[in-house]
Specification:
This is Error-prone DNA polymerase. Its EC number is 2.7.7.7. The protein is of the alpha/beta class. The chain has 13 helices and seven strands.
């Protein structure tokens, strides 16, 4: 007899519910350790057909670890499952596990493709770099704001220029220097750490043929290219290149009911960081004027800008970039600036 299992995963404990022939046959809890979970599943459900759990911070680790143990693990979209779980009168971990087991038995769920650890390592590198850059910006702004209180307006400048200007203003002001200099030293250290991650990122980009291929597109740099490759992983994950735009939330939402039928804003589903990077690449393509950026895609975007405005044109170009980049990964061809209007 086939058995269906729902797992409600949390940091410390995981609630388990097992169903068979439309009835719950066992439920309990286990520490959130894939090895312990797989042992308990084999003990109470030797004929497990589906083991369902939602996306979350531990989903990548759980999926690969359970799969390695021979458990038929399936990761499903949390937002889709939440619509069903919210119908439960009492919100408990055990009831959530029961609801997931119901979904596993009915087959009414949306499977999520879990990325490999190599791809997650690349995404972690990009995220850590962005976090350090964000902290660096916050610290520099904080230093400027604190010094303004005492009439010390630090002029525009970054890097060594900013460091030199701050130290020059603090010269002779020992009381304020004792407060600002620790912040400035932390700012300098964070910038050095960010530079180290930059070197790692560039080295990874140089070692990837796919990344170098995508960087032939005007406006697409190492961060955007390597983030795109890590997100897509295998071009065969998408049957059509057009699907990538919708997967990244760059297509408009539609509402249709009776006589009402209209398109709204973009859905903004999927990878927020990659969507933002593609939008930045589109803005660079539309605003930079050089021989390298001249291409049919830019001309199409500029015509769209005159008709719909800059922001909408940039979103449209970002979606086209997502489609073109997938097509390039699939065919292995470089970006053709003289090609006709993108499909």
């Amino acid at each position: 007899m086939d058995q269906y299992i729902g797992l409600d995963v949390s940091l410390k404990e995981t609630a388990i519910s097992i169903r068979q022939e439309g009835k719950r046959i066992w439920r309990g809890k286990c520490p959130s350790d894939p090895k312990l979970l797989s042992e308990m599943i084999r003990r109470h459900a030797p004929h497990a057909k589906r083991v369902v759990f939602e996306t979350g911070p531990l989903s990548t680790w759980f999926y690969h670890a359970l799969t390695a143990e021979g458990v038929p693990a399936i990761c499903i979209e949390a937002r889709h499952a939440q619509r069903i779980l919210d119908e439960t009168l009492n919100k408990t971990d055990a009831n959530d596990a029961d609801g997931l087991a119901h979904l596993a038995e009915a087959g009414f769920y949306k499977t999520v493709r879990v990325k490999a650890f190599d791809s997650m390592l690349t995404r972690t590198l990009v995220t850590a770099r962005n976090q350090l850059l964000s902290i660096s910006t916050q610290l520099s702004n904080q230093i400027r704001g604190l010094m303004k209180t005492f009439g010390l307006i630090v002029p525009k400048g970054r890097g060594r220029i900013f460091d030199g200007n701050v130290r020059q203003f603090l010269d002779g002001n020992d009381a304020l220097a004792k407060i600002i200099l620790p912040l400035l030293d932390a700012w300098c250290d964070i910038r050095r750490r960010a530079a180290g991650l930059d070197h790692q990122l560039l080295a990874a980009a140089r070692g990837s043929q796919e990344t170098k291929l995508l960087m032939t597109i005007p406006g697409v740099g190492a961060v955007t290219a390597i983030s795109y490759v890590a997100a897509i992983e295998d071009p065969d994950n998408f049957k059509k290149s057009r699907s990538v735009g919708a997967w990244l939330g760059l297509t408009t939402r539609r509402y249709q009911s009776g006589e009402v039928d209209y398109d709204g804003h973009i859905s903004r589903r999927g990878d927020n960081r990659l969507r933002g990077l593609l939008y930045e690449a589109a803005m660079v393509l539309l605003t930079r004027t050089s021989a390298r950026t001249e291409c049919s895609l830019k001309n199409w975007g500029l015509k769209l800008r005159d008709r719909l405005g800059f922001k909408r044109a940039a979103v449209a170009v970002a979606r086209k970039l997502a489609v073109i980049m997938h097509s390039m990964l699939k065919t292995g061809e470089m970006f053709n600036a003289l090609a006709g209007a993108p499909v």
